[in-house]
Design a protein that fits this description.
FeS assembly protein SufD, nine-stranded mixed sheet, 4 helices, mainly beta, Fe-S_cluster_assembly_SufBD, SUF_FeS_clus_asmbl_SufBD_sf, 2 domains
Length: about 400
Amino acid sequence: MARPHSHGATPPEIVPPKTKSQLLRSFDVADFPKLNGREEDWRFTPLRRLRGLHDSSAEPATAAPKHELSAACEGVTVETVTKADKRIGSVLTPFDRVSAQAFTSASEALMIAVDRNKVVHVPVVVEVKGKGADGASYGHTFIDVGESAEVTVILDHTGSATLADNVEINVGANAHLTVVSIADWDRDSVQLQHQKARIGRDASLKHVAVTLGGDLVRQYLSAEFAGPNASIDAYGLYFAEGGQHLEHRQLVDHGVPDCRSNVNYKGALQDADAHTVWVGDVLIQDVATGTETYEINRNLVLSDGARADSVPNLEIETGEIVSAGHASATGRFDDEQLFYLQSRGIPEDEARRLVVRGFFDDLLRQVPVESLRERLHDAIERRLDRVDA
């Protein structure tokens, strides 16, 4: 961080940032140095596989991913807006170079707006279909949920793409939003995404991230509270196969009193060179009395050569909280569970499948659409078939 010019006077004291993610916030790409892989936030990410998304060297794509709305919903407006829309950038200010590049390079944004007091019973499904991984694309999505509204929004990413994008989520006072974000890309895809949520007084956000496809997918979810008695429940499910790099990071910033956060991510890995990363940061500021928070990450390693990195972090600036905790575990199959199932006549291969199904079951149940749950269940089953092969 640059020191202000003092004209010879004693320079003012520079107050250090509260977290590494608050070192710098800017919409200008030039404010961020080019990444070299030694930065704390990027030390797990193989920069050579980002196809120039991290250093502005990427050639533009000839065909950007296409957004398709499944069906119109009463009380919900879905439209393309320009960057001049005053809502764009009101929730998210980039805190890394890739996010700033995506904000600068995206000429328009998909706006999903829900009327205040509107309860939408049908999920709003936006399909993001990649048209090719040659060349870089940039995107921006804004989900704006009015006061006392209730809605489920599904962002379903498929096809091939090299994509850096931002998603802003604004949850009005007393509103309730469920976001299901699915990365089911073709295997040649790369996606770097920053999702930022602001949650209003007495409001709630349930966020479910499912990552199965792609060569490299890196999602950063950050959240802040705009009033007391707000909450976020963030769930994540990922399954990496040989050569895949799937990375998930969260920053939950408790800056007002009496708010609650819960983070629960689970991953499975199989084959050599499968790599997953989970980093969870929770900041409880000195004014955030009455905070209740917990984060947990569990990883199940199914074969040799796979690697899971898991880093939970808590920064607490006040002792006047309800509770705060974190946990992380990475391991292989539970031998006792396998023995119990095999002792009842279940073959070893089927016993392993049952253990994995049970491992993911509570997170799949967080997906509110039955047809989508079945699709994700089938995708996991296909991967388990390859384990048994």
